Amino acid sequence: SDEKRLLEKKQTALLGLERKIAALTRSAGQAPRMTYFEGAAGLKKIYLSMMRDAPKGAVRLFLRDEFVWRKEWEFIFKDEWRGTIQRWKKEKGMKTRLLINPSALEKSKKKFYDGQKDLTVRYLAREAAVGDFALYIVGESVAIMSFQKNDMAGVHIVQRNMAENMTRIFEELWSAAAKK
Question: How does pLDDT run across 72-89, given as a tens digit for each residue?
Answer without folding.
Answer: 888 888 888 888 899 999
